[in-house]
């Protein structure tokens, strides 16, 4: 496995892969790898000749009062883990390498970014699109791998790929969870022991709401059950719990087939997100 930190060194590797007609799978991450990231890499490994993993904590997707500075980082550990699942190239650039100058040109995510995480993190998805589009250009992947954990991110990136004709396929990997159901996240390390005990209540609440919605099609009562569960089982503060049509992220209607039930909850100071996507078979 090669670890490259410059765009030039990455370009050399990509050129060599393209010259020998190899397919490329890209796994973009912010590092501090866990099994969720490794599952993306394993899926990419199974489907491509060359697997590139980027490890870059992207400052442009963090708000001014968010955790860019304190976001956990451990490149030596990450490279060992990446190698263990068969990644061929780790691209770990510095902020200066990715953003040497600022010409002021921005990608702006549309309607899909005005709700859910976009409502509480203004500009977040614009930053995501900026870095992801750069990574797409730099690695020229045949396929790029993203987690369903960030379902809104997947929907917005898929829209960019469609609208700007990026010649690649987006592959979505299911959420990887701890044994007690908590979605794996690099931010879980922020949780105190007591907070960690409370955190699985988010997933439990989503399951309760899904079952309730599938039983009677009533979104309001499903969401009320989820909120009550979080309020009684945690000291957390709910940022949002919502039920939307997926992947459009529009209100659920009688013709909706795929439903996204998504939540963001502050457990202590840590903002955790989770979701489930399910099919409404018989219509509502
Ligand atoms: P991050 O490093 O948090 O930006 O995540 C990098 C990629 O890993 C994104 O596509 C995430 O959706 C995905 N990911 C993060 N956590 C999980 C998880 N628990 N299960 C599946 N994919 C995940």
Written account of the structure:
The chain is an alpha/beta fold. The chain folds into two domains: 2-173, Rossmann fold (3-Layer(aba) Sandwich); 190-279, Pantoate-beta-alanine ligase, C-terminal domain (Pantoate--beta-alanine Ligase, Chain: A,domain 2). It is 39% helix and 20% strand. It is built from ten helices and nine strands. The protein has helices spanning 7-19, 35-47, 75-84, 95-98, 116-120, 124-139, 151-163, 193-198, 201-216, 219-233, and strands spanning 2-4, 24-29, 50-55, 89-91, 143-147, 169-173, 237-245, 258-267, 270-279. The strands form two sheets. It has a six-stranded parallel beta sheet with strand order 1-4-3-2-5-6, with helices on both faces. A three-stranded antiparallel beta sheet has the order 7-8-9. β8 and β9 form a beta hairpin. α6 crosses α7 and α9 runs antiparallel to α10 (219-233). The mean pLDDT is 97. The structure holds adenosine monophosphate.
Short account of what is shown:
This protein has 10 helices and 9 strands.
- How much beta, percentage-wise? 15-25%
The helix count comes to 10
The total number of structural domains is 2
Uncertain parts: none
Q: What ligands does this structure carry?
A: adenosine monophosphate
CATH superfamily of the largest domain: HUPs
Distance between the termini: 50 Å
CATH topology of the largest domain: Rossmann fold
Shape: globular
Give the helix proportion (percent range). 25-40%
What is the averaged pLDDT score?
97
Our Rg estimate from Cα atoms comes to 19 Å
Instruction: Give a quick account of the main beta sheet: strands, pairing sense, barrel closure.
Output: 6 strands, parallel
* Strand segment tally: 9
Order of helices and strands: EHEHEHEHHHEHEHHHEEE
CATH class of the largest domain: Alpha Beta
CATH architecture classification of the largest domain: 3-Layer(aba) Sandwich
Name the structural class: alpha/beta
Biggest sheet, spatial arrangement of strands: 1-4-3-2-5-6
